[in-house]
Amino acid sequence: MTPPSTSVSSHIAHVQAYLQVLRAERQRPAAQRAEIPLDYFLGEDRPEAFRELVAFRLRGCPTLLVGLFQFRRQPSVRQAHARRSLVNYLNQPPKELGINSAARPEHLLEVRLPEPGEPIPEFLRRDRRGERGHAIFVDVNSIQLAFDFRLDNPSESLPGAGRSAVSEAHVFRTVEGHLLLGRSQGLHTKLHRDGEFIALAEARQIGPGGERFLPNLAIRRSFLALDAQVPLGVPVAEWLRGNLALLPEAARPEHVLVPTALSRAA
Fold first, then answer.
1. Contact 90, 146 (CB under 8 A)
2. CA 87 – CA 200 distance, rounded (Å)
3. What are the residues facing 49 on neighbouring strands?
4. Pair 42, 69: CB distance under 8 Å
5. Cβ neighbours around 75 below 10 Å, total
6. What is residue 58's three-state secondary structure?
């Protein structure tokens, strides 16, 4: 495949560096994990809201995009930048945030993107200094998957609130042929009312060359073609080889986050 342009490669490099840090921290006991520094993902920071780095794939776009989404700050005794989970945010976009919010339809998200070729760290510093770039509007219905740059879910919720089942090991096959493994409540359980996005934690991608580490993902239901729950106590590799539709050899080899030549080094 054609390598990404310089305008995009700096974004990919930031994602790859983040995944390396995340992989290392996930291997440590939870009590010993270091938080991802705020300056790695935080943009404009105001008392009522803040902008935070989110990576996302759009339908018809050949690579991952990285931009600043605006979140309303939630009350919290533990976190300075508490907010709703990304899945909840995408299922119920915040119409009241951003410019032209009164006239903007709810399905349009205001996103700030870096300039072509601008490194992500400089993009974040510029936004924190108040040097605003041009806003674009993204149709949430075109987002296939997304993830944020935090070590853990930054939202605070009441015990049991909005939960109808315990997450279990699931394998998904996307409409593009990727095999994704992780903990989820699956396609059959609809949280957040009739939300179009579901969460996949402890995510991995399975392919002909083995497994790839992934961050926790928010995935659009229509991007997932198959959902299979892995029986408790059954080795995943053994179970996959007993399912014709989920054979690793038949999975798409390109990285689900960065479907370009650079992904092979991820």
1. yes
2. 10
3. 72
4. no
5. 7
6. strand
d(CA 163, CA 75): 20
Residue 192 banded pLDDT, cuts 50, 70, 90: very low
Mean pLDDT of 236-265: 79
pLDDT tens for each residue of 111-148? 999 988 888 999 999 999 988 777 889 999 999 999 99
Would you state the structure tokens that stand for residue 100, as one six-digit string?
Answer: 């032209």
Q: Residue 143 has which token pair?
A: 């987002």
Answer for the pair 146, 86: CB distance below 8 angstroms, yes or no.
Answer: yes
Rounded distance, CA 50 to CA 196, Å? 24
- Report residue 89 as tokens: 């945010």
Please, are residues 207 and 214 in contact by the beta-carbon 8 Å criterion? no
Host H or E run for residue 68:
strand 65-72
Q: Provide the token pair at 14.
A: 């930031």
**d(C-alpha 107, C-alpha 84), whole Å:** 17
Which pTM value belongs to this model? 0.86
Is there a contact between 172 and 180 (Cβ–Cβ < 8 Å)? yes
